[in-house]
Amino acid sequence: MALLWQKQTAESCYEVRTHGASVRLYSNGVFHSQWNPRDPLKGSLWELLLLPAFFVPAEQIRRVLVLGVGGGAVIRLIQQFLAPEEIVGVDIDRNHLHVARRFFGVKGARLECADARVFVDDQLALAESARFDLVIDDLFGHVDGIAARAIDADITWCGKLLGLLNTTGLLVSNFASRKELLQSGWRTGAIRQQLKGCWTAEHPGYNNCIGIFSRQGLSRRALTSRAPAPLNPENPQRRLESRLRPLR
User: What pLDDT does residue 142 have?
Assistant: First the structure.
């Protein structure tokens, strides 16, 4: 892999490397993001964060919030396959935002360097018209070289994220494991009683488990009628291997 860019700070070493036509972001050796503009759907974990969006019609997704930009792979995927009117990306690390703009080619999105906790609280203080149709919670850092959630998904955090959604909105949250998701605030009674749609998505190549939550019911048939062929769970030639199942 060729090294395109490197920066050392007091706490982290950032590297942007190429792997064929793909661009990859590493932080302290942890693989954070990958983007290939020639072939964006390659079956990666970032595509698993995009897949749930097809539970709802594309025209319904007008405002999107991505918490945890990394290199910006998820934003690029959303722009290419959903084309919402507005995307807001939040990351506490300004070096990630620099990489997203310079090396991953993120344009046309509002990127905010901020603590997600503060940003979410500020958004909740705004009028309901500022709510989002899709919120992706992908807030990950690293502990001893292993990726880990940066904010504990307790009942308070989950309640705040749910408050960011409009009535038909969709929440997608990345967890390091299925066990971590099942122990999160999303499984508490106070949160569950507000939800009618609860699913999980998992990739056989990763331990991560993606939680998918909505106040509206979510239909697998609706998703498979809309998802692009390389992502579609019903397509035998799909590139994304995913286990998509309801969360009871």
Answer: 67
